[in-house]
Amino acid sequence: MEIRERKILFQGLVVDLEQMEVKIGEKGWHVFQIVRHPGGVGILPLHDDGTVTLIRQLRPAVGHRMLEIPAGRLDPGEDPAACGERELLEETGLVATRLESLGLLYSSPGVFDEAIHLFLATGLMQKDAEPEHYEDIESARIPLKEALEMAARGEISDGKTSVALFRTAHR
Q1: DSSP class per residue in 121-164
Q2: What is the pLDDT of residue 83?
Q3: Quick count: other Cβ atoms within 10 Å of Cβ 70?
Q4: Is there a contact between 159 and 62 (Cβ–Cβ < 8 Å)?
Q5: pLDDT, tens digit, for every residue of 68-100?
Q6: What's the CATH code, domain 40-169?
């Protein structure tokens, strides 16, 4: 891939916006704007009884509370599994004895470079949640089968959550 005229248009708290020209084969040079994000982790806690713990929290970008897996942004150089363990504890109070990778998810690769590392957490123990000062999180423990049905019907509309649920069901 050939790139030229690269520049940062905006530097934000969480994301940057980069503009560049990319050569697309014989079609020539075309301008692309890409939202740069440090990446994240999503973790699906699966209990021994076949239930999963999901969280409900306000997502200002879409204007309502969403049901989703615990998740968070990677710190620079942070190991994704360590980030997943941190977010799981912060948002649910759960600690896992086992983490299994469910692979990567690119949420919207046409404009967004965020790579989300997905994990399945098992061997769970309950402790106290430690949410960030700005987070208002409510946990919901539901059967995996019910969560899968909710995702299939579109009642769970968060992409990382649906992918983690479906990958877990088919692993």
Answers
A1: EEEEEE------TT--EEEEEEEHHHHHHHHHHTSS--HHHHHH
A2: 97
A3: 28
A4: no
A5: 999 999 999 999 999 999 999 999 999 999 999
A6: 3.90.79.10
The pLDDT of residue 115: 97
According to the model, what pLDDT value does residue 132 have?
79
Q: Are 20 and 32 in contact (CB under 8 A)?
A: yes
DSSP β-bridge partners for residue 113: none
Whether the full predicted model's pTM is greater than 0.90, yes or no, is yes
Q: Where are the alpha helices (DSSP H) in the chain?
A: 80-92, 144-153, 159-169
Residues 6+ apart with CB under 8 A from 113: 34, 35, 36, 37, 106
Intervals of the chain under pLDDT 70: none
Q: Environment class of residue 41 by beta-carbon count within 10 Å: exposed (0-12), middle (13-18) or buried (19+)?
A: buried
72, 81 contact by CB (below 8 A): no
Q: Hey, where are the domains in the chain?
A: 3-36, 40-169
